[in-house]
Amino acid sequence: MSTTDQAPARPTPGRLLLAGAVVAVVAATLVLTAIALDRWGPGNIGRGFAVGAVVGSALAGFAIWRALRRPDRATSGDRLFVGRGDERDRAVAARTFALLGAWALPLTMAAFLAMALGAPADASMGMLFIAQVAVGLVAAWRAAQRL
């Protein structure tokens, strides 16, 4: 049975209460961390954290909404994030993480070598992050195409 054939289950009141409590705790933690970083952190780190938290929370909320309310249009990542992934979704994730793990050490060594040769550390780490995201996206796309 594929994920798209399943009807979305209605959440029970207990689950809604638990979800609300989790959202409240996460929101409070993010707000308090942003305030603390803005007050005692260097530069604009608090504001940057707050913007990142808002964007990340919005994307997570969108993924949860898509997976729970529109399962026919949800992606493998949406379903995995919510915990409703089927065997194919888990296989895509396993293959993606396997390939990303295989590339992580060579990419990290290349970034270290660049820093050892005099490249700025922030630029090297930024390029390492971009390269790992690119490898992850390509790996997920290829795994989804093959399965």
Keywords, separated by commas or semicolons:
147 residues; mainly alpha; 2 domains; 0% strand; flat; transmembrane; transmembrane helix; membrane
Report on the structure:
The chain crosses the membrane at residues 16-37, 49-68, 97-119, 125-144. Keywords: Membrane, Transmembrane, Transmembrane helix. By secondary structure, the chain is mainly α. The chain has 2 domains: 1-84, no CATH class; 86-147, no CATH class. The protein has 5 helices and no strands. It has helices at 13-40, 45-69, 76-82, 87-116, 121-146. The mean pLDDT is 88. The chain is flat, with a radius of gyration of 19 Å. Helix 1 packs antiparallel against helix 2 (45-69), helix 2 (45-69) crosses helix 3 (76-82) and helix 3 (76-82) crosses helix 4 (87-116).
> What count of structural domains?
2
Query: Quaternary status of these chains?
Result: single chain
Strand content: under 5%
Structural class: mainly alpha
How many runs of DSSP E, i.e. beta strands?
A: 0
State the helical fraction: over 70%
Mean pLDDT: 88
Determine the N-to-C terminus distance: 15 Å
SSE order in H/E notation? Answer: HHHHH
Helical element count?
5
Q: Largest sheet, if any?
A: none
Poorly predicted sequence stretches spanning 5 or more consecutive residues: none
Per the principal axes of the C-alpha atoms, what is the gross shape? flat
Q: What is the radius of gyration computed over CA atoms, rounded to a whole number of angstroms?
A: 19 Å
Keywords: Membrane, Transmembrane, Transmembrane helix
